[in-house]
Amino acid sequence: MEAQESQPLDVAAIREDFPILERRVGSEVTPGTIGKDDPDGQQIVYLDNAATTQKPQSVVDAISEYYTRYNANVHRGLHHLSQEASIAYELAHDRVAEFIGASGEREEIVFTSNTTEAENLVAYAWGLDELGPGDEIVLSEMEHHSSLVTWQQIAKKTGATVRYIRVGGDGRLDMEHAKELIGPDTAMVSIVHVSNTLGTINPVSTLADLAHEQDALIFVDGAQAVPTRPVDVEAIDADFYAFSGHKLLGPTGIGVLYGKKHLLEEMDPFLFGGEMITKVTFEDATWNDLPWKFEAGTPRIAQGIGLDAAIDYLDDLGMENVREHEELIAEYAYDRLDEFDDVTLFGPDPGPDRAGLVAFALDDVHAHDVASIMNDHAVAIRAGHHCTQPLHQKLGVPATARASFYVYNTREEVDALVDAIDDARQLFA
Ligand code: PLP
């Protein structure tokens, strides 16, 4: 407890807002165990936050209040409930704009299903019209599949070429290579802000400058950045910026695409149908104002309201405190894991360009076996390629184990992780 007192967040108080962290689980899962405590089990240690975070009671309550008090479709009804739902849904866009520093407010904030859909929206709506043979899309070797696969496919459809900024042995982007690659043929630079495998914080504003010097655009994948540090899309000068609500205490099913207003105005819609039109005839249609032009069909109303509540919660904690807490925990985890000779850690050493997640490999033990032994200790981590298969090929490992931390994690939980890894080492020795 003493170690917690000098910390930037009151973790003990925060944990009370997350009843799920009290769950006691066994290692076996059957349909009958879903949501039930195992009296002989152990208390869960949840270290899979880069995949998705847990939800505070206030977020669950906000969603529940929408469904129990003002559930209605938005923008379609003049009736009381529809107006309440519409106001709440629209205000959620304003809240997101404020949170990430978008001064164009709700017009620059499109709600999507997740980061992946935001990437696809831009790749299709902008890329299909703007790219052609001779154009280059510059990615990096540490991109998540949501960006890498999407741009690869758009390149195949348009005849454009994908080029990759090298990742150095230190887990950082080779910025000299970036300067060589981003040239007159570059049309789009799509870069992950914080790598979900290496933890690297990339110099996205420098990359934005490099792109803009060549009249190219930059798309920043902020899926791991927005949850963990203050982000200002205008200070970065990102043309597009995307993230997922479920990775920052919000519900699943909601993501955000920020786009500069003039770009979103120039782009054609991605999906067609109801809500996104102004006038329809048998021959043609005209498009609704931003951001609704990009939100076809009944939108993610409950999810938007839940995201608003999640941002409230994070704002109360203070994003600087969130960042500091996460980095302290991750650094502690990094140092403790570094004590083992047979554990390889990936990504930069702890420092200003390293975020709070740790991917590692245990000599001669597959990451899936590591995760399975962790599960026997009720420690939840992720094992696999984390949607960065080409990066893993480059690292020379088929898979890594990854522990990732958030506002409710403690040093004691890191100790539980380390004890479980020690068990795995001895089992396979
Ligand atoms: N980009 C990064 C860096 C991620 O870590 C993830 C998810 O793990 C994504 C994109 C995709 O997010 P989602 O699955 O919510 O679309």
Structure description:
The chain is α/β, with parallel strands linked by helices and 429 residues long. It has two domains: 11-49 and 318-427, Aspartate Aminotransferase, domain 1, CATH 3.90.1150; 59-315, Aspartate Aminotransferase, domain 2 (3-Layer(aba) Sandwich), CATH 3.40.640.10. The protein is built from 15 helices and 17 strands. It has a seven-stranded mixed β-sheet, with helices on both faces. α4 (80-99) crosses α11. Pyridoxal-5'-phosphate binds at residues 50, 114-116, 144, 146, 192, 196, 221, 223-224, 244, 387.
Topology:
Layout lengths: L1 H4 L5 H6 L7 E2 L16 E2 L1 E2 L10 H13 L10 H20 L9 E4 L2 H16 L5 E5 L4 H14 L2 E5 L9 H7 L4 E7 L11 H10 L3 E5 L11 H4 L3 E5 L10 E5 L1 H6 L10 E4 L4 E3 L13 H17 L1 H20 L4 E3 L11 E6 L4 H10 L2 E2 L1 E3 L4 H7 L4 E5 L6 H18 L1
Which class of secondary structure composition applies to the elements? alpha/beta
User: Beta-sheet strand percentage?
Assistant: 15-25%
CATH architecture of the largest domain: 3-Layer(aba) Sandwich
How many helices? The count is 15
Reported for the largest beta sheet, the result is: 7 strands, mixed
Shape: globular
Strand order in the sheet with the most strands: 4-10-9-8-7-5-6
Q: What is the CATH third-level topology name of the largest domain?
A: Aspartate Aminotransferase, domain 2
Radius of gyration: 22 Å
What helical percentage do the residues reach? 40-55%
Small-molecule binders: pyridoxal-5'-phosphate
The number of domains = 2
> What is the CATH level 1 assignment of the largest domain?
Alpha Beta
Termini Cα gap: 34 Å
Give me the count of strands: 17
Would you identify the regions where 5 or more consecutive residues have pLDDT less than 50?
1-5
Q: What name goes with the CATH superfamily of the largest domain?
A: Type I PLP-dependent aspartate aminotransferase-like (Major domain)
